[in-house]
Amino acid sequence: MIHSGTPAFWRATLALCLGSFMIFANVYITQPLLPMLAEAFGVSALQSGWSFTITTLMLGVSLLLYGPLSDALGRKWIMLFSMAGATLCTALISQVDDYSMLLLLRALQGICLGGLPAVAIAYMGDEFSKRALSVAVGLYIAGNSLGGIGGRLIGGFVGDWLGWAAAFEVMAVVSLICLVVFYGLLPDSAHFKPSPLQPRKMAADMLTHLKNPLLLVAYLIGGFNFFIFINQYSYATFLLSDAPYNLSAGFLGMLFLTYLSGTLGSMLSGRICHFIPQPLVMVLGIMLLIAGSLVTLIADINAIIAGFLINALGFFIAHSCASSWVSQHAKHARASASSLYLLFYYLGASCGGFYLQPFWDAAGWQGVIAGSLLVLCFTAGLALWLYRQTQIALRPAQG
Domain check: are 143 and 286 in the same one? Predict the structure, then answer.
């Protein structure tokens, strides 16, 4: 086993963090480029957003496939395939001159991108000692968030300087470097034991999870919160690229630095849950999301940034609690329960733009916030329902 603090631990952890950075940088590179893509290809705000949503949609669906495949075929090679396929797609995207082809490649890229996030923690579970695992997972999740920020900064600054195609070229080079280093650093699996594919059992497990209201409601909370949170950023790029702000793609990329408050939110959520029931912590996170959304209505760039900082803090508090709730309340097949949570999570990212578009068309940013509040009130209600269920479950024990 790989133990904490050893050279093997740091090699493996660095490799997985680089892989995580590379995957999520590729997912989010298009977000600061949306106004530029709309202008370059003559498409609407909603259509330019498809370059992001099609990737997250296919990534979410692919998560259901890679986990079982890695159980049968092995971990490391699945992750290498994922990174290599994503790198190739990024390079090809930089050469397209047709928007339909760009969307097709982004869809294929989404399928490739799912391999590493679906398998990385399973690899760590196989190879790391229990103590080393908790440290490595924390660093790996930090790689996720840094990748999201890094991809947006690369997209924003390179796109602003050299154009959207050059942003993908630079990302392809960065991805190739990460792939080579990942291959060189990550130890081969030493404790992996292959198991046969059992599609019927997989389907039965997932159906059981979906029939469990305590899990289904958590899936809906995570999915609908991300549905709003991530797509607010997409429409904010159009708000801030227009008068009176007139921000360049580079500065739009910097907007996503507000994600850093989400790191604090993830760290705080576990501690808050020691004092407040988990569903109420979810409500707290959603209330912060509502408050941050309202702050962005103030027509001042500093207020808008502050609003997004509050949004990220609240979203990641709620997301961390909902994700943890799933792992605690899945009675069996916890891996498939977590995969379903991620499926709802990325489906939310993919569909939110379609929901918010009519609000944007009707009333601009004010419309986006109005549409957001409707959904967030719904998810707050779901979290309160979970709290009620926990109170009902406690009554017999108290009696």
Answer: no
Distances (CA, A) of 150 to 45, 171, 314: 23, 10, 21
Q: Is 119 exposed, middle or buried (0-12, 13-18, 19+ CB in 10 A)?
A: buried
Query: What is the total count of domains within the chain?
Result: 2
**pLDDT tens digits for range 358-379:** 999 999 999 999 999 999 999 9
DSSP-assigned beta bridge partners for residue 128 = 2
CATH number of the domain within which 226 lies:
1.20.1250.20
CA-atom Rg of the chain in angstroms: 21
Answer yes or no: do 182 and 208 share one domain.
no
Place of tokens 């990329």: 253
Q: Using the predicted structure, report yes or no on whether residue 69 has a pLDDT greater than 90.
A: no
**Final residue in a domain of this structure, among 197, 222, 249:** 197
Task: Kindly list the distances between the CA atom of residue 11 and the CA atoms of 84, 175, 207, in Å, as whole numbers in the listed order.
Answer: 20, 18, 38
Same domain, 236 and 357: yes
HEC profile of the chain: CECCCCHHHHHHHHHHHHHHHHHHHHHHCCHHHHHHHHHHHCCCHHHHHHHHHHHHHHHHHHHHHHHHHHHHHCCHHHHHHHHHHHHHHHHHHCCCCCHHHHHHHHHHHHHHHCHHHHHHHHHHHHHECHHHHHHHHHHHHHHHHHHHHHHHHHHHHHHHHHCHHHHHHHHHHHHHHHHHHHHHHCCCCCCCCCCCCCHHHHHHHHHHHHHCHHHHHHHHHHHHHHHHHHHHHHHHHHHHHCCCCCCCHHHHHHHHHHHHHHHHHHHHHHHHCCCCCHHHHHHHHHHHHHHHHHHCCCCCHHHHHHHHHHHHHHHHHHHHHHHHHHHHHCCCCHHHHHHHHHHHHHHHHHHHHHHHHHHHHHHHHHHHHHHHHHHHHHHHHHHHHHHHHHHHHHHHHHC
- 251 lies in which domain range? 198-399
pLDDT at 353 over 90: no
Q: In the predicted model, is pLDDT for residue 15 greater than 90?
A: yes
227 and 148 share one domain: no
Instruction: Count the neighbouring beta carbons within 10 Å of the beta carbon of residue 384.
Output: 15
Domain finish residue from 163, 197, 231: 197
